Amino acid sequence: MTRSVGIVGAGAAGVGAAYALRDADADVAVLEASRGVGGRAATRRKRGCRYDHGANYVKGGGRTAELVRSLGADGLVDVEEPVWTFDVDGTISEGDPDRRDDHKWTWTGGIAQLAERLLDRTDATVEREVRIEALERAADGWWTIAADGSERGPFDALVLTPPAPQVAGLLAETKWQSPHLPALREAVGAVPYRPIRTVVLHYPFELDRPYYALVNADREHEVGWVAREECKEGHVPAGECLLVVQMAPEWSAAHDDDPPDEAAATAADAVAELLGENRLRDPDWVDDRAWRYALPDDGADREVVRRGEEDGLFFAGDWVAGEGRVHEALWSGVEAGERIERRVLRR
Ligand SMILES: Cc1cc2nc3c(=O)[nH]c(=O)nc-3n(C[C@H](O)[C@H](O)[C@H](O)COP(=O)(O)OP(=O)(O)OC[C@H]3O[C@@H](n4cnc5c(N)ncnc54)[C@H](O)[C@@H]3O)c2cc1C
Fold first, then answer.
1. N or C: at which end does the chain have fewer Cβ atoms within 10 angstroms?
2. How far is CA 130 from CA 52, 145, 240, in A?
3. Residues 274 and 244 in one domain
4. Ligand 1 contact, 320 CB (< 6 A)
5. Are residue 245 and residue 289 in the same domain, yes or no?
C-alpha cells in the first residue's frame, strides 16, 4: 500500500519537506491555511507593483545558492545594492558587515516564487484555505481535523510547520496516547516570537540612494528596516519608489491595533526624518501587514521536538532551526523530509 505524508503549512519549511520527498514512494499532501503558498516569504501585487512584504530575500551561499539556482535562472534576482545601517539618532553608515558578502535572492515574480518553484518540482497535492485545528493519532495513522470539521488522513507521517505558538495551539487539540505529549506541548509553547508590522509606502517619483536597504543596528529606533523594493528587478515600474518599512518589534507590539492609515503616517514621518526628505511624508498609496509571529527569539529544545518521530510526528520551521531565516526554515523542512524517508517510509 502507498504510504502517505501530511504537511501542515506551505511556508519554506513545509515546501522544503515536500521537496525532500519528491522522489519518495509516498503520497504527499500539503495543507495550507491561506490562499497562497510561501508563508512569511510572501509577495503581494498592487497597482502595477510587486513587493515582498514579509521576508525581503533568501540569504545564503553554499547549498542554499545551489538549490536556488537549480530552480531556474529565469526571473531569479540577486539584489546587488548593499544594506547600510542606521542608529537611534538616525545616523546612516555605510555597510553592514554581517551582510556584505551574502547573496540576497528573490525573483521578478517575488519571493513567494521560492515555494511555487519548489512545489512545482514535486507531485505533492497542495490544498489551500484549509486551516487545521486538531490532530488525532488513530490506529491507522495521523488524522487532521480542519476548521470546517473535515478530516484528512490517515498519514504515516505528519509534519507541523506553522510558527511555534500556532503549533502549540494544535498540540493542545491533539488526541495521542503518548508519554511525550506533555513535554512537547511545553517545549513548543515556550518558544518566544517577536511581532513586526510591515508598512508599505509608495511614491510616484524615484528615490536615488546608494543602498538597497537600511537596518537599525542598535535596535533602539522605532523603525527596524527600510528597503527600496525598486532595487528588485520587475517589482516597481520605472520612475516610482516603493519602500518596505518594518517597524521595530516593541513598536509593533504596542501598535498592533492602530488603523493602517495611522501606522502608515507614523512610518512615513519616521522614514522622511531618517532619509532627510520631506516629500516622503506623503505616499500616494500604502499597504500594511501585521506579522504577529514574525521572528522566533529562540529555538525549541531539539531533543524534545524529535521525541514524536517514532510515532510519525515531525516538526520543522524557523523555530526548530533556531533562527528566523527563510533558508533555515527551508533546510529544517528538507531535513525533516529526509528523516521521514529514512525512519517511516523505508521501515
Ligand atoms: C517582516 C519579516 C521580515 C523577514 N525578513 C527576512 C529576510 O529578509 N530574510 C530571511 O531569511 N528571513 C526573513 N524573515 C523570516 C522568514 O520569513 C521566516 O523565518 C521563514 O519564512 C519561516 O518559514 P516557516 O516555513 O518556518 O514558517 P511560515 O513561513 O510562517 O510558514 C508556515 C505556514 O503555515 C501556515 N499555517 C499556519 N497555521 C496553519 C494551520 N493551522 N493549518 C494550515 N496551515 C497553517 C501559514 O499560513 C504559513 O503558510 C522575515 C520575517 C518577517 C515576518
1. N
2. 23, 10, 37
3. yes
4. no
5. yes
Whether the pLDDT of residue 213 is over 90: the answer is: yes
Query: Which residue matches cell numbers 505529549?
Result: 181
**What one-letter code names the amino acid at 330?**
L
Q: Which atom of ligand 1 is nearest to the CA of 318?
A: 26
CA of 139 to the centre of ligand 1 (A): 32
pLDDT greater than 80 at residue 97: no
Are residues 240 and 127 part of one domain? no
Percent of the chain with pLDDT over 90: 96
What is the spatial distance between Cα 85 and Cα 152, in angstroms, rounded to a whole number? Answer: 48
Burial of 13 (0-12, 13-18, 19+ CB in 10 A): buried
Global pTM value: 0.97
Secondary structure (3-state) at 83:
strand
- Can you tell me the distance from the alpha carbon of 295 to that of 196, in angstroms, rounded to the nearest whole number? 8
Angle at 71 between CA 128 and CA 299, to 5 degrees: 65
**Distance from residue 91's CA to the centre of ligand 1 (Å):** 31
Provide the strand spans (E) within 74-204.
Answer: 76-78, 83-86, 92-93, 104-107, 125-127, 132-138, 141-146, 151-155, 157-160, 174-175, 193-203
User: Which atom of ligand 1 is found nearest the CA of 317?
Assistant: 26
How far apart are the CA of 228 and the centre of ligand 1, in A? 21
Residue 102 CB–ligand 1 contact under 6 Å: no
Grid coordinates representing 54 are: 514579509
**In percent, how much of the chain has pLDDT > 70?**
98
Mean pLDDT of the chain: 96
Per-residue confidence (pLDDT) for residue 101, from 0 to 100? 64
Predicted pLDDT of residue 115:
98
**Ligand 1 within 6 A of 6 CB?**
no
Domain range for 95 is 57-108+193-296
Residue 46 lies in a domain: no
- Return the exposure string of 172-209: e unless at least 16 CB atoms fall within 10 Å of the residue's CB, then b: eebebeeebbebbbebbeebebbbbbbbbbbbeeeeeb
**Partners of 117 in the beta sheet?**
none
